[in-house]
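[Q] Does anyone have a clean structure-token version of this?
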Amino acid sequence: MTQNVESHAFQAEVQEVLSLVIHSLYTERDIFLRELISNASDALDKLRFEALTHLDWLPEGETLGIALDADSEARTLTVADNGIGMSKEDLTGNLGRVASSGTRKFLEALKEGSAENTPDLIGRFGVGFYSAFMVADEVVVETRKAGAEEGWRWKSDGQGEYTLEAVDDLPRGTVITLHLKEAQEDEPDYTQEWTLRDIVRRYSDFVEYPIQMEVERTEPKLDDDGEPIEGESQTVTRLETLNSMKPLWTRPKGDISAEEYAEFYKHHAHDWTDPARTIHFKAEGTLEFTALLFLPAQKPMMMGEEGHPKSRLSLYVRRVLVQKECEDLLPVWLRFVRGVVETADLPLNVSRETMQNNRQVAQIRKGLVRRILSDMGKWFEEDREAYE
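[A] Here you go.
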């Protein structure tokens, strides 16, 4: 049963700001999925934290996760989570205003209450959700907050207004349905499994909750003895987890084998050979970050090409890829170094992409350069022939 539908105008000059978000904020359209998954991860973090004091909010044995569902005929993509959910006030405050972040308010509330052990939360600026309008003509959000009985449906085409209506019998959490625009010839189709799988692998592979999707596979039909029947096949639907949830760099060095380091390097750098040197460390102090760096055994193919005089390190913030080639992390003369850097201390800017002129990035850069040169010096002393 649904109740009366309420129409509301967006706040904060939303048409102008939405236009900026949709057309100018992001350089890659694929990032919309990263943003929605990041928001879902936030919601799961919040629930897990709040359930420490509200035990009935998270029943024992329930698995927290994120689900994707694509319908190519209806041209829809759904991103669902069983996290904290939102109330009517949350929807109005978080989705009715651009640059109003529920996550930021959540952190501030915890700080005021002197809460300890706050979870790592990803989004802080409240605009990532609107990147959905880069690929969708209409976005529908159905949600019920933990501890509440009433759920809500939020709907908008991003043109200046949104509607709200109460909805009964919604599960706890949030379901976001994107009514996708028609895909152009040179654009990816976001209803295709392999497109979604690739985006998740690139941007959200290390989110700590499972990102799952039902997939169809054609398999041989089996007889009563479990043997394939020649010439007969069947379509099987199974739930698959798209992300690994296992960031190598967060594991203790002593638990990682040389083979695991080499496989990660090959995957990350698209190199067929093992790295010449691996540098894995965690910097602690006023600014904390973890780095997993590799020195290639031979000159990277693209290193001398025009247009590639920059760092090739990937920057992660709380397990979410922020920038694939963050040129601010290393000087040009160390651009041969490959690897990843992750921090929880870096404040994400409005687009989560541009980190220039950030004081903390400069501190990370200084720490990386110092550690790389120190390791190369040791290598020179230990094995000059290999070094040369």
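[Q] Thanks! Anything notable?
[A] DSSP finds eight helices and 14 strands in the chain.
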